[in-house]
Amino acid sequence: MSELISEEVPAALAGERLDRIVALIGDISRSDATKTVKAGGVTVDGTTAPSGKVRLGAGQIVTVDPAMFPTTELPGPDPSVEFGVIHEDDDVIVVDKPPGLVVHPGAGNDSGTLANGLLARFPELEHVGDRMRPGIVHRLDAGSSGLLVVARTNESVDRLIEQFADHSATRVYDAMVWGVPDAPHGIIDAPLGRSRSDPLRMAVVADGRPSRTDYQVVGKYSSPAVVSRLECRLETGRTHQIRVHLSSINHPLLGDPTYGQRRPNLGLKRPFLHAAELQFRHPATGERVTFHSPLAPDLQAWLDKAEV
């Protein structure tokens, strides 16, 4: 079972070829995007696209059927993939993802993903949800660490996806940023979409999707630089949301190679961002459940050396 992916072409991609847009929104290679179009797996404004060479305008609706992606080998079990499990029952698995681990196969990442590791530990996931993303209902960037809930039944897939869609599932992140925000508590309410200068990046854009991040300053440090520790709550869950929002107020994440404004990494090998808390209604019982993850070891080691 694969859910259709529908996206409105943003101004940043106006004039681009359909195959490039499909590659971006489907997280697949350009050649696979071309094959998907040829196989009839893409519609533009409700009409099946005959070619990937057509150039699109802003506002057009592109719908992609992942089931029509080229027959990329389905992820198989890989017991060498390491990840933590902090809770499991008959309906859900709560994973503690280490940094550097890609969540599921995509462009340039065909193996060694969390999906492969999940299939090794929980073989029944092969038949849960999208077969390329077994049981997976939301994502973390490869460079981020922390909590991720995985559905163990198809009923759980539907109920969890609904909660992430209506934002009733809540996520809290531990972040370290450059400088000290003017307000100790604030809400960044700024729409996000593809960057006009680089469509591979996200940016604050007027015609983007509504996006809100609630932050609270919970610590300030003077060495190795003036930085602040924030608790960030996602009110929406857009791609790279926290990273882009914090950079937009000139307080980018430490260690962020994409949105860090070319500042030094201060010894970090990835963005200082950890999914520390996850709360949702249990798909079987309806009970509100909360899970916590301590700061990842590499970030904790950095924090231990920081001076107030």
Description:
By secondary structure, the chain is an alpha+beta fold. The protein is 18% helix and 27% strand. It has 3 domains: 64 residues, RNA-binding S4 domain (Structural Genomics Hypothetical 15.5 Kd Protein In mrcA-pckA Intergenic Region, Chain A, Roll); 92 residues, 2-Layer Sandwich (Pseudouridine synthase); 103 residues, Pseudouridine synthase (2-Layer Sandwich). The strands form 3 sheets. Strands 5, 6, 7, 8, 9, 12, 13, 14 and 15 form a 9-stranded mixed beta sheet that branches. Strands 1-4-2-3 form a 4-stranded antiparallel beta sheet. A two-stranded antiparallel sheet has the order 10-11. Strand 2 and strand 3 form a beta hairpin. Helix 1 packs across helix 2. The longest helix has 12 residues. It is globular, with a radius of gyration of 20 Å. It is an enzyme of class 5 (isomerase). It catalyses: a uridine in RNA = a pseudouridine in RNA.
